[in-house]
Amino acid sequence: MYEFNYRKVASVAAATEAMQQAEDGKFMAGGQTMLPTMKHRLASPSDLIDLGGVAELTGISVENENLIVGAMTTHAAVAASAEVQQAIPALARLAGNIGDPAVRNRGTLGGSIANHDPAADYPAAVIALGATVQTSKRAISAEEFFTGMFETALEDDEIVTSVSFPLPEAAAYMKFENPASRYAIVGVFVAKTGGEVRVGVTGATACAHRGLRLEAALGGELDAGGIDAVELPVEQMNSDIHASAEYRAHLVKVMTKRAVEACQ
Questions:
Q1: Res 152: pLDDT
Q2: What is the pLDDT of residue 160?
């Protein structure tokens, strides 16, 4: 690990100011990715700005038919929340199956989506639920937020403050997970909201994305009868020691069908 300046801040304004003053600063949420990356000397920020003490970034509430989750709310808190369990049970179950207890008690919603690991779970939920990511500067729609592998629409000094999830009529998340890490080899989140069925896919490609071909096959209904006939672009699928591109394409359809069935 290279030498760096550690800054613990107590407000979003102080975090923004610290970033603007840093030569090459990085925000840290739970540190589940940032710290290992620094230990392996794959990142060497001049300043590490710790958001852990920013109380305004935590909390869960339901307002105007939306579930609002603060960016620094941990996975464990989301999983255990009575509000989440009642409003969007599928989101609570998703959070409760991320990593292990140590990861769930340190990792945060905001950190996960800002990092945008292509095998992370939350991005599929953000996309399928049509969520809005609120930052220190603006509101960003789910479709615009995730832009590439480990890339988002966030600017360097922009902080995710909360995520607003519209309450669905039905929702479910199914993933084929790596047995060691519980990362999604393929994960599919299906949600019906306001008569529209949306599908969010993670793990399959370099970027979490909306499964438009799958949505077309569903036709706005929670009926998976047409999923087998969907042709997915195998050439765009990830391929590694865990699963080939062809197998991932197959898994996307299997997980979609299981998620649709779980919505019933």
A1: 97
A2: 98
Query: What secondary structure does DSSP assign to 128-146, as a single string?
Result: HTT-EEEESS-EEEHHHHE
Q: Are residues 116 and 14 part of one domain? A: no
**pLDDT under 70: residue ranges of the chain:** none
**Three-state secondary-structure class, residue 83:** helix
For the record, the structure tokens of 227 come out as: 């999923």
Q: Please, are residues 127 and 116 in contact by the beta-carbon 8 Å criterion? A: no
Domain CATH code at residue 43? 3.30.43.10
Distance separating alpha carbons of residues 251 and 247, to the nearest angstrom: 6
Domain count across the chain: 3
Check whether residue 60 and residue 155 sit in a common domain. yes
- CATH number assigned to the domain comprising residue 194: 3.30.390.50
Q: How far apart are CA 1 and CA 222, in angstroms?
A: 49
Asked if residue 154 and residue 127 are part of one domain, the reply reads: yes
Structure tokens, 260? 């649709």
CA geometry: angle at 208 spanning 207 and 211, to 5°? 120
Q: Is the pTM of this model over 0.85?
A: yes
Give the integer Cα–Cα distance in Å for 163 and 97.
19
- The pLDDT tens digits for 4-56 are 999 999 999 999 999 999 999 999 999 999 999 999 999 999 999 999 999 99
Domain range spanning residue 162?
56-166
Query: Roughly how many angstroms between the first and final C-alpha of the chain, as a whole number?
Result: 49
Domain identity same for 159 and 65: yes
- In whole angstroms, give the CA distance from residue 162 to residue 77: 14
Of 139, 166, 193, the position where a domain reaches its end is 166
User: Do 15 and 51 form a contact (C-beta atoms < 8 A)?
Assistant: yes
